[in-house]
Amino acid sequence: MALFNWLQKKIAYALLEGPKSIEQLSKILAENPFEIEKALKQMLELKVVNESAGLFSLSEEVKKGLKERREAREKAKPKLDIQAYIEVTSISEKKLKAQLETIEKRLKNDPSLVVYSLHVAEPVKQKEEYSAYIELTAGFRDFLSLVRFMYFYGPSTVEVVKPAKAEFTAYELQEGLNEMAELIFKYNTYVAKHFKKTELEEFYKKLFREEKK
Length: 213
Hints:
Radius of gyration: 21 Å
Distance between the termini: 37 Å
Number of domains: 3
């Protein structure tokens, strides 16, 4: 399914209920009609929406994808919906593609999350390295699942799509924080064993300088 920005996603879900005009979308989404018109023009260029007599509707492919995502969410009943980007770099394009395939396979088979959509970008060469990213939209059953995802997959950015406000029991929060503490401890132990003292000092100096910015 095509990649949408936040406004286009809202438009797509509104159109899932049936064709609508720009004015109708503006009222439903409480968004500026000029911004909606701009987003729709891009969606028309991508051929993910159709226009007829001033009414916009989703293409059958996008409609199918959104319905499948909605059904997956209703079945899994996740507590959190997340959109994340996982960036991968390598000096070899072949190795980069192999890494992307491995991550994609693990994400799709990971029982702690339900994948709604997953897009793997084409590798791009930057100087001596190749880079690419995976855009993922997924549901997580609890805070602990999200903590594990953060550490095992290392996304560069994360956006909470749903809900606008989440509640966790003290036990859920404790489990997630304990898992986080254990993973951080293991990481620190590994770094301490494999870095020289001067390398560690330089690493922490750089880390603290970036935090102050």
